[in-house]
Write a structure and sequence with these properties.
Layout (H helix, E strand, L loop, with lengths): L4 H8 L5 E4 L8 H8 L7 E8 L4 E7 L6 H8 L4 E3 L2 H8 L17 E4 L8 E7 L2 E5 L11 E3 L12
Parallel strand pairs: 3-5, 5-8
Antiparallel strand pairs: 1-7, 2-3, 2-4, 6-7
Amino acid sequence: MEKTNVMRLLTQKKVPFEPFQYAAAEAPTGVEAAAILGLDPATVYKTLVTTGHSGAHYVFVIPVARELDLKKAAAACGEKSIEMLKSRDLLPLTGYVHGGCSPIGMKKPFPTWLDESAQRLPQIVFSAGKIGSHVRLAPGDLPRMIPFRYASLCREAPEDPLR
């Protein structure tokens, strides 16, 4: 198994984690990645980078099957509005490519929020900084790596018409 920088940083700080890897020529969606790994998508999170009205950048970590509510995200970081960072700007800003972005080990630290749903889970999975590489760790161990806050960040899930 190839160790990524995220895995090296976790090892360096003695944060327990479980690595997951799979071969991928292109980045699958988060839900597809969860299926490839045989994991419940409710436990797999994606890392989204945004730009605020002020020009500042913010990171939001949410479940892969959910969508970021931009109004909730803007309220969480005290911005008038935010928008998703353009894909072409991700690598120069963070050091990560689309589909391999991790909240750990970015080129520089950005204010980060984790969806409040993670508080109810013993462990979450997110990208280890490379397409096809993920780590699973306890949300309670994440503050040893990055400062973050919890917030309600996702759009409300539409009602299931089959219920």
